[in-house]
Design brief:
The chain is α+β, with helices and mostly antiparallel strands. The structure holds adenosine-5'-diphosphate and magnesium ion.
Length: 395
């Protein structure tokens, strides 16, 4: 139970991180928007000043205006502006255009630029007082925001993308190292177990030979029974040592492998549990490692039995799939798996049983995906039972 609690906490932590990053993102975009608004207002004021400066240079002819034209008109060096005067002539600043454009072409480009600019900002009219003291319109200044402002607008998105990329990479790196660590634990524990079982098994084998010499024990069939148990212990040892090393796959008859497991389990199960084999007449060969593959089947069958209680039916379907695949389905008529936990059943340590370890399916997935390069799926519709489906490569 503690292990599944850990997964719950982990899921909660993921939500906290996700919500925090959403808040940071929104905050960063919001704050940049405030800056953008302020900068926009400042640029608008600058263009207004620019228009006023033009007005002054039109209405006065004093040399003092040199200051206005030099300091204000010339120093507008970041905001792209186009001034259309009363005669319709266009005068532009801070717009990157090639030098050698023909006048008509230049005009066409500037006109389309003006249309673009008008979408964002209203032009600022240039009005000046003529010699009679009447207010006269002398065109207007069109403008758009500066490159600086464009950069500032893009900045939060660039920043968020960078953070997201960084986040994804660290997440993958973390997951990878977590997986690598898990691999070492699986492999190490399996090797250690196989190794520790080795010695007592060989000594048990020697002891049965001694017992075999006793006619009394021989008559009672005790050495034979012991032999069976030793064989099972050897199978277990082989499973663990195979998990600890990358085992070679061989073409094996799948139907026969399944039958072997069923025949081994049947006498150990309630008579009210039925097995149905839905398999083709001819044998199907698949590339598998028999001791590990049998372990997977045993785990699936045990889970099926657990879910059905005292009676029910387990159906095994074996067929050839597309693209050199062999499909194997194990269905039961048990209580099914609620949709909410369907995604979790393969996690190491996930169990809903009082005495469960939650390792059966984790191991099954590991054997099928890592050692057989196959796939395993689960499907369950409410109380209609559960189906596990395995895909491995045909031989
Ligand atoms: N055939 C099935 N029917 C219903 N639930 C299942 C079945 N197979 C697996 N489960 C669910 O998946 C969980 C994990 O299974 P498993 O990894 O074998 O661990 P354990 O059997 O020790 O609980 C089980 O506790 C059970 O809730
Ligand atoms: Mg199990």
């Amino acid at each position: 139970m503690q292990v599944s609690e850990f997964y719950k906490d982990n899921a909660k932590l993921k939500w906290v991180v996700l919500i925090a990053s959403v808040i940071i993102s929104i905050g960063s975009i919001y704050y940049t928007n405030i800056l953008v608004e302020q900068l926009k207002e400042r640029e608008r004021a600058q263009v207004r000043l620019f228009a006023r400066a033009i007005e002054y240079t039109l209405s006065e002819s004093d040399d003092a205006l040199l200051f206005v034209s030099e300091e204000i008109i010339a120093k507008n060096n970041s905001i792209p502006t186009i001034w259309r005067n009363a005669e319709g002539q266009l005068n532009y600043r801070n717009i990157d255009l090639p030098e050698d454009l023909s006048p008509t072409r230049l005009n066409r480009i500037l006109e389309s630029k003006i249309l673009e600019m008008e979408k964002d900002y209203d032009p600022i009219p240039v009005n000046y007082r003529n010699s009679n003291g009447e207010l006269e319109n002398y065109g207007a200044v069109y403008y758009e925001h500066s490159f600086l402002l464009t950069q500032l607008l893009a900045y939060p998105y660039i920043q968020l993308t960078a953070i997201a990329v960084f986040g994804i990479i660290s997440f993958l790196a973390f997951n990878y190292s977590k997986e690598a660590e898990q691999n070492r634990v699986w492999v190490g524990l399996a090797k250690e177990t196989a190794h520790q079982l080795g010695t007592p098994i060989s000594s048990l084998m020697a002891w049965t030979e001694v017992l075999r010499d006793d006619p009394e024990l021989q008559r009672k069939g005790i050495p034979e029974e012991l032999d069976k148990d030793i064989r099972k212990l050897k199978v277990v040892t082989e499973r663990f040592s195979s998990i600890g090393s990358a085992p070679a796959l061989k073409p094996e008859p799948v139907v026969q492998t399944v039958n072997n497991v069923v025949n081994y389990l049947r006498p150990r199960l309630s008579a009210k549990i039925r097995f149905i084999m839905d398999v083709p007449d001819d044998e199907i060969m698949a590339n598998i490692h028999t001791p590990l593959f049998e372990w997977v089947l045993e785990n699936l069958f045990k889970n099926a039995v657990d879910s059905m209680g005292s009676s029910g039916t387990i159906t095994v379907r074996i067929s050839r799939g597309v693209a050199d695949k062999v499909l194997l389905e194990v269905s039961d008529t048990g209580k099914g798996i609620p949709a909410a936990i369907l995604k979790k059943v393969f996690r190491p340590g996930f169990t809903t049983k009082k005495r469960g370890w939650g390792l059966g399916l984790a191991l099954a997935r590991r054997i099928i995906e890592n050692y057989h390069e196959g796939r395993i799926f689960v499907r369950s519709t409410g109380d209609q039972g559960t189906t596990f489906r395995i895909e491995v490569k045909a031989a």
